[in-house]
Amino acid sequence: MQIPSKLKPYYENVAFSKEDGRMIINLGPQHPSSHGNLRLVLELDGEKVVKCTPMIGYMHRGMEKMAENMIYQEFIPTTDRMDYVAASANNYAYVAAVEKLCGLEIPRRAQIIRMMLLELNRLASHLLWLATHALDIGAMTVFLYCFREREYVMDLIEKYCGARLTHSSMRIGGAMLDLPANFTQELLAFCDKFLNDVKDYETLLDDNRIWRLRTEGVGVVTKEQALSWGCSGVMLRGSGIEWDIRKEEPYLLYNEVQFGVPFANQGDTYARYKCYMQEFRESVKILRQLVPMYRESSPELICNNKEFVSASKEQIMTQNYSLMQHFVLVTQGLRPPVGDVYVPTESPKGELGYFIKSDGSTRPYRLKARTPSFWHCSFYEELLVGTYVADVVAIMGSTNIVLGEIDR
Amino acid sequence: MREYKDKINAQKQDYYKDRFYHAPQTTKIDIKGSEFEYLFDEFNNNFSVLNSFIELDIAVFIINKEDNLKALRKAKDLGFTTFTELICSDYLAKDNSYEVQYLLLNMNKKQRLRIVTTCKADEAIESGVCVFKGLNWSEREAYDMLGVNFINHPNLKRLLMPDDWFDYPLKKSYPLEGDEFAKWYEIDRIFGKEYREVVGPENRDSGRVDCNDTNNFSRIYHEVPKGAEPISIAYKQEYQEDEGVMFVKKVKRADSKFIEGRR
């Protein structure tokens, strides 16, 4: 037993043997695959994991607490920091919850812009996932390729909202800005180019001997496990449950576009990888359909509801009442009706939703973020037991967690 | 004199209060005659349902806390095979209780259901881990953040905060920037209690700037070693142009390069 003192803390990373062949090791928090603050305490029997205890560090920024101390509009930039890989998805999930609570009707063009951003963000998030997952397993080339293509996606998003990672691009009631000139052409050009890139990744990985050995039959998630542990997104679809919220409980204009929901029955890491690869193509398909929809839509961007949304700039500058209303909305915040709301959305990582309990004041009484990574990370307790140490990293990669979401 | 602080609700409050404002309610639809009617009958036969309605597309059933496992099991049998979230909220100031909600999902019928119970602060609620394994962490989180007690949980430990953290941060009585104990927590852990005088309390206000603190970037260009007197003259600053101008005036447009696009 170590006796810790102020100057001699625990040496937690020193592996010590418990019995013959039994060993407790800490995977992370410094391991590159563990995102900097995930620590897996693995109890090993030889190389087999007997027990796994995930610990999620003390990053704890208190997102929910912050939300309860902010007016509704103020919280939008904070949602970016939850899942910083797919910031728009978080923006939308939050904004959608507030809009549903207030009963706002979003103009069609704003919905199309939102969908474009969401799908672009989905691509960016999946690209980062593929890059890091491949790198964790040892495929360096894919990592470089994916980051190259990710730049194109981020360029597009940057053109729209000026930010590359933390977009804060959505507003309660619609969108602030229209798409810039030539955006749709560039989007289509990217769509044409990107499909070839996806083919490149697949050429590199699909039949790669090492890749298949490292991923096939590794980290198998059964249907029952996935349901019981609250898995969502690709973790669910990889184990044979065809459930995509965009399809099943459509929001925005997802019921107007054609796209498929890729799913696999094996439930292993390779199956999840194949799902992700197919999702690239489906996202591109959606993006392509959005362009003509955008061109036909009327130019309203933000809904006309003076109670919750500021009037247009022109009105604010000319009409006294609009100015007063705007002043109240900015300084005090909007006052939604009393009630509870939860809107599920399909983020790149799974089901993402914000539960808001409103007591009629300008700040949420309780805001609870339902973030997919939280459940996938808790699932490690069961998923990693019985696997080998070398596979732990592959499985961790395939679950696609972001620790910023797990921390509250 | 010590500053007065509300012990019951330490959260930010609206500055302006409109005495005549009555907040509207969200519409609550009767569950009878809706697609959720089958749930009501099944639930009512097995345990007492205190209230039920549909709020913003989600069916809500308010039940006693003793029936929570029965309700979860029944819901699971009725096709709500996966759960979405466990939400606990603090009503300690109102009636010394927590509100515990289970959010469940039926994938075949595409329905969502909220089972709502209340649990007194000094009582405990049965853990739902035996029905849905994923509740494991969310119950730990609820315990960690709000102090809700769950019985028969396999591992009810703190999840986000350190084990020896005092109080539960998501309570309404807990201040946004932490309490008296939070202020000293890291100082005590790193240096020891006897160093409190030497080190001073932790600054938990991320927006605070102390102009007398010459160490922590609060006096840019005026930093001095710890303990030394602050200096009045700024260090020499280097700008893009000679003689140090605050703003660049002579931008050489011809020298700059515009990239048409990525190749």
- Strand-residue fraction of chain A? 5-15%
Secondary structure: number of strands of chain B: 8
Could you list the spans of chain A in which at least 5 consecutive residues all have pLDDT below 50? Answer: none
The greatest interface here is: A-B, 58 and 50 residues
> Mind telling me the C-alpha Rg of chain B?
28 Å
Structure at a glance:
The complex is a heterodimer of chains A (408) and B (263). In chain A, 48% of the residues lie in helices and 12% in strands.
Task: Explain the overall architecture.
- The complex is a heterodimer of chains A (408) and B (263).
- Chain A is of the alpha+beta class and 408 residues long.
- In chain A, 48% of the residues lie in helices and 12% in strands.
- Chain A is built from 16 helices and nine strands.
- Chain A has helices at residues 63-68, 76-80, 87-102, 108-137, 140-161, 183-205, 209-215, 223-228, 234-237, 245-248, 269-296, 313-318, 320-331, 372-383, 389-399, 403-406; strands spanning 16-17, 22-27, 39-45, 48-55, 170-171, 174-175, 339-347, 350-358, 366-370.
- Chain A has a four-stranded antiparallel beta sheet with strand order 1-2-3-4.
- In chain A, helix 4 (108-137) packs antiparallel against helix 5, helix 4 (108-137) packs antiparallel against helix 11 (269-296) and helix 4 packs antiparallel against helix 15 (389-399).
- Chain A starts with 15 loop residues before the first strand and ends with a helix.
- Chain B is of the alpha/beta class.
- Chain B has helices at 37-46, 68-77, 92-95, 135-146, 180-190, 196-199, and strands at residues 28-29, 49-55, 58-63, 82-91, 97-106, 111-120, 124-126, 149-151.
- In chain B, the strands form two sheets. Chain B has a six-stranded mixed beta sheet. A two-stranded parallel ribbon of chain B has the order 7-8.
- In chain B, helix 1 packs across helix 2 (68-77).
- Chain B is extended, with a radius of gyration of 28 Å.
- The chains are: A alpha+beta (408), B alpha/beta (263).
- At the A-B interface, helix 1, helix 5, helix 8, strand 7 and strand 8 of A face strand 4 and helix 4 of B.
